[in-house]
Amino acid sequence: MNISVCKIHDTMPKLKVRDLMTTDVVTLQPTDTVKKAAIKFAVDNISGAPVVDNRNHLLGILSENDILNLLYRYQVSLDKNREGSVMLNNPLDSDNLADDQLKTISEEISNLEISNIMVRTVLTTGPDATLMEVLKSMMEMDVNRVPVIEKGVVLGVISRADIIFALYKKKV
Hints:
Blueprint: H1 17-20, H2 34-44, E1 48-52, E2 58-63, H3 64-81, H4 100-111, H5 131-141, E3 145-150, E4 153-159, H6 160-168
Antiparallel strand pairs: 1-2, 3-4
């Protein structure tokens, strides 16, 4: 069996982050509530977003995992006190919560500012980094999205979805 390997020409320009990054970035403010963030995620069909100040400087990042971890911690706490309290049986903003403790917890979660649960140490990249450098870091750190930063300001986001999209569609 004869296997041949085709080497890509070395002078071919390497794909840069700027070639694939999303520049129309959905961002959050640290004072946004968990409820507002969850609604933004659902409406914009995203699973996370950079948290920025009023000058678009990166402060952190929030993902669905951060919100779900919060819900899980509350549920574990409820389970210690009584069996069978399932927070996800009703929407968190439901007026029909008969259980006063669940209603209190629901309000507490919904009104919690995301600055309390966001991740503050964030993998970032610059627009001129090669795509493979960023992909390697994303895979090693199990990160779905990386803010693209220049002088502390968020220019865009590169996500696993952007890279997958580029495999079959011309985005550049």
